[in-house]
Amino acid sequence: MEPTKADTDPLSSLAFASSLEDELEEEVPLQGETQHARTSQGQAASSHQQDDYFGLPPHRSAQHEEPSRDHAVASYGQLLSGGSTWNSGFGRSQVEPHEPMGSQHVPTDPVQREENGMLPGVMGKYMSYSVRTKTNRPNFRQQDFAVRRRFRDFVALHDLLKSTHRGFFIPPRPEKNTMEGQRAQPEFIELRRMALQRYLHQLAAHPVIGLSEVFRAFLEADEPLLSSLQWTQLTPVQHTFMEGMARLPRQLLGSESAIPNPSDAARSTRHTGDLLRRFKELRLDVRQEYQEQPALTQAEIDLRNERMLVEELQEKLANASRKAEKLVSSMEDLGNVFGDLGLSLIQTGLYEAATADQVGQYSDTGAAAKIIAADCKRVGQAAVNGRRLATTGAQAAAKAVPNATPPATIQTSMALSPLHDQLGIVPAVLKALKEREVALLTVHSLQRDMVMKQRARQSLVDDGQKVFGGDKGKERKVQGLQNDMATLEQSTSAAEQEYDKVMDRNHQELVRWKAGRAEAFTTMLDNIAKVEVGYHERMHKLWEIAASGFDDRRKQAG
């Protein structure tokens, strides 16, 4: 049987190319780098990582695990949202996780459960996670315990923190998935678990929220959380929109007081259900925006200027994040192109070697083909190894080679993670600053009501004095206004205290956030420089070895 073209021509064999790529993707030590040295380097990095586990700034990744199949994902957004951990194989950069001092919270063991649906006989499904806590903080009853929580519980935690911790920069929670069909997918479940873990670690790292009763109750309360006594005792009464609609006609007709009590005055209108108060504050906000500029203290003016600066920073961070994503994508594309070029050169070299065997390697044509084959193989292998250094390499990641060199795309993504982290926290910063302005709007609204009540009372008193013997009807109205003014005075005082408290929190949080951002960006820029230096040093070594073959042949020819 005569050999076919596919048997004799290496360029026509796609199966050969695929198997060749698998072989060349294996982790092979470079020249001058022994396997012992590489293993020692990995062990030293792991030791250093454990020593510094609790001493890192809060912007670092929250996950600590060995390299897995997740590292084969080259998407910048997925890499950053997952918070994967990598030791630098370039020997210069350490992108390590952060754990809050003395506290560790890890969602594990996702289990799908069923519950009664909205319709009779229809069962709904949800995912439950085991949240395990290891801590040495004295405010916890135990040091090692676990409870099961579903995503709805995390939403309740975030909502309660927003209600009870006005003015703090509360880390954003993971978004709810709108695609019903994706919830049972293993990839989605793992990404959700990692996002929830990152969220818990950010809360635990906060100096106030991490020690709050709300956070402790979430971690300790028996399931189901929303019906736990420990949780319900911390949850303020929430009035619904329909309750507000039912109250509105009575407030307008005067059969029910329209003056908020002191406890409601210290809360945002979003949590009170008082639609009349909400309409009043909205009207006052529009009037202050376009007609009457309120008299503001210098501290309030400074904080409003800070909010405008944060909005400008948000635009800069968004642009930088897009550029970072483009950089990682370009590095991935460049690495893949290098790999394709390397395979093509190796296949060309095999073709030239086959040609030399056919015509005779001692003939002029055969000798030239043999030289071309050797050069193509050497340069092609350098290009393929360059791809391994640069890109995620699905084949290499799947093989999970021990102490494998992390590709430059992963290292760059992790080094740039503070951009993503800071961009993610900016909306929370703006909401906290806006919450202070809402609290001040409540104070202004109550003060305006007080002025109107005082004018109405004075008008009734003046009219009553014109009647001989007094006007009993007007006296009753004056007494009612005095009662309203007494309640207003208490509510205004409560609103002012709440505003002062939120302002103090804004000041403290801005100082903390700016210091953390400065440290995060310094570390980020340092890591980027080290990753780039290490990557290009190894690429230089690869191509230097490839070029040495040409120098050796020139010396032999000379």
From TrEMBL:
Ranges of Basic and acidic residues composition bias in the record: 62-72
GO CC aspect terms: endosome
Composition skew (Polar residues), residue ranges: 32-48
Residue ranges of the region described as Disordered: 1-73, 85-113
PROSITE patterns: PX
Keyword Coiled coil: yes
Pfam families: PX, Vps5
Lineage top rank: taxon: Eukaryota
SUPFAM superfamilies: PX domain
Record carries keyword Transcription regulation: no
Keywords, alphabetical: Coiled coil
Domain PX: 107-225
GO MF assignments: phosphatidylinositol binding
Coiled-coil ranges per UniProt: 296-330, 478-505
Name of this chain's protein: PX domain-containing protein
